[in-house]
């Protein structure tokens, strides 16, 4: 028998029971929910909305997930005029879905768009589009405890330009993919190497916005680090080569006693929403937080170091290597402070504790 698959192609299937697995009406997609990683798994729908330079975004709509068409001269392809965002949706035990601070992603995209000379959706347009996209792909939101739906909004110069200039047309797009819990097989602390030659960002540059060009630029240092067995790279400021900045795609915190310190936002580090939330959670737990210049030397006598970002939430750092010298934090999994913060934040995001912060948005 021939049955239609989700993506419009046809699949020959001899088993009657396959008919059920192609039904979009079912509560959950028929996949191995226990084996989710952090790779792209195509879902049913994506959201698209366009606008011309100087205009406003309007008439966004859901489309079947699939390839998009771009003029070879599109601004995003030729000059990197593009931004991305990342957030997650969790399924609660009652079946409702929780988004975490989506308006923060909307605001960050608007700030990035200003830097990159692009028009951006309003906060309402952004949040509504995220909600619509998640609900249309509801069956791809993993069951409680199995992971989350990763939501990836993009903003790009899709219009054709030849000379260097802002594109004449922009596309806002959202796609989603189910992802597993980062620490599926237990918490594995990451091992970082401090990079003191290549830099991720410069004062006056674009390190503080989530523009696509910042990421290809770190691949070289990241690949070299991985080839030597490290998990990722920790960047230093490019002026003094002395102060911590961040990891390729997450922010960093250093714990000493009852104080946690993190580099202040000053244009060269990405203002993480997890970073900001962890700062608030820490203060609510009576932990002192300092946002300041953090010299690389402080890594030497730190009690714990951890990273924050949407994908990992909180990731403990097991060791940091700087100019050939390795400092270990002697933790097998989480240190006590990172553990406490991870636990409070993830339970809040998953709807397991009362959201006194009013950070979650519930969809049913
Ligand atoms: C996205 C990102 C982060 C983390 O931001 P969140 O909002 O917490 O996900 C940190 N650093 C960089 C460079 C990033 O791109
Ligand atoms: C875009 O929206 C703003 C605010 O709603 C409005 O003032 C402006 O006139 C609109 N521009 C266009 C070209 O429609
Ligand atoms: C909670 O946050 C939402 C935005 O997500 C806002 O509209 C609402 O007014 C807030 N409620 C309270 C009680 O602050």
TrEMBL record:
Cellular component GO terms, alphabetical: chloroplast
PROSITE patterns for this protein: AA_TRANSFER_CLASS_4 (PS00770)
Protein EC: 2.6.1.42
Reactions performed catalytically: L-valine + 2-oxoglutarate = 3-methyl-2-oxobutanoate + L-glutamate; L-leucine + 2-oxoglutarate = 4-methyl-2-oxopentanoate + L-glutamate; L-isoleucine + 2-oxoglutarate = (S)-3-methyl-2-oxopentanoate + L-glutamate
Cofactor annotation: pyridoxal 5'-phosphate
Modified residue annotations for N6-(pyridoxal phosphate)lysine: 210
Pfam entry (one): Aminotran_4
Domain of life: Eukaryota
Protein's name in the database: Branched-chain-amino-acid aminotransferase
Organism field: Gossypium schwendimanii
């Amino acid at each position: 028998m021939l049955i239609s698959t989700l993506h419009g192609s046809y699949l020959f299937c001899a088993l009657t029971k396959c008919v059920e697995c192609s039904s979009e009406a079912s509560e959950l997609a028929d996949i191995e929910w226990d084996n989710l990683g952090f790779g792209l798994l195509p879902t049913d729908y994506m959201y698209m909305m366009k606008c011309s330079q100087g205009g406003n975004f309007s008439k966004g709509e859901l489309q079947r997930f699939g390839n998009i068409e771009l003029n070879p001269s599109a601004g995003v392809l030729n000059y990197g005029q593009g931004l991305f965002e990342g957030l997650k949706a969790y399924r609660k035990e009652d079946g409702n879905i929780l988004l975490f601070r989506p308006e923060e992603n909307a605001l960050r995209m608007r700030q990035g768009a200003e830097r990159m000379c692009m028009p951006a959706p309003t906060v309402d347009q952004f949040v509504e589009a995220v909600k619509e996209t998640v609900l249309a792909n509801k069956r791809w939101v993993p069951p409680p405890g199995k992971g989350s739906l990763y939501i990836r909004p993009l903003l790009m110069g899709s219009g054709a330009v030849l000379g260097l200039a802002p594109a004449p047309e922009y596309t806002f797009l959202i796609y989603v993919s189910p992802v597993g819990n980062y620490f599926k097989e237990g918490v594995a602390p990451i091992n970082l190497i401090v990079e003191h030659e290549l830099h991720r960002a410069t004062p006056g540059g674009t390190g503080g916005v989530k523009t696509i060009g910042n990421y290809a630029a770190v691949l070289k240092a990241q690949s070299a680090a991985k080839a030597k067995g490290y998990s990722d790279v920790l960047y230093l400021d490019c002026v003094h080569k002395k102060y911590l900045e961040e990891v390729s795609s997450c922010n960093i915190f250093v714990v000493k006693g009852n104080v946690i310190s993190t580099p202040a936002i000053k244009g060269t580090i990405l203002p993480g929403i997890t970073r900001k939330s962890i700062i608030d959670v820490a203060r609510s737990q009576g932990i002192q937080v300092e946002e300041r210049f953090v010299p690389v030397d402080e890594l030497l006598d730190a009690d714990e170091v951890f990273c924050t970002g949407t994908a990992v939430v909180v990731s403990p750092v097991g060791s940091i290597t700087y100019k050939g010298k390795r400092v270990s934090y002697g933790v097998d999994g989480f240190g006590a402070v990172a553990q406490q913060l991870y636990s409070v934040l993830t339970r809040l995001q998953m709807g397991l504790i009362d959201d006194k912060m009013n950070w979650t948005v519930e969809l049913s």
